[in-house]
Design a protein that fits this description.
Largest sheet: 2 strands, antiparallel
Strand content: 5-15%
Order of helices and strands: EHHHHHE
Radius of gyration: 13 Å
Helix content: 40-55%
Oligomer: single chain
Structural class: alpha+beta
Number of helices: 5
Length: about 70
């Protein structure tokens, strides 16, 4: 049986480390709504690959440092 994965993210931490960037500021930089950023941070919404890369680019981080794949707990 294939492993199940969860995608976690470090967006909230990265925003804090980026002069306490607001969700709205990040949303404006990547062309989405603040609610979309909130949903991604809370793992209620998975961004498209294009959006995930755009978010990583804002923080000048590789994708793997913003979005982390973890094996799902059983």
């Amino acid at each position: 049986m294939a492993k199940k994965w969860e995608i976690h993210n470090e967006i909230r931490l990265l925003r804090f480390l980026s002069n306490e960037m607001t969700q709205q500021e990040l949303a404006d930089k990547v062309g989405v709504t603040r609610q979309t950023i909130l949903a991604i941070e809370n793992r209620k919404y998975a961004p498209s690959l294009e959006l995930a890369y755009a978010i990583a680019d804002v923080f000048e981080k590789p994708l793997e440092e913003v979005f982390i794949r973890k094996e799902a707990e059983k």
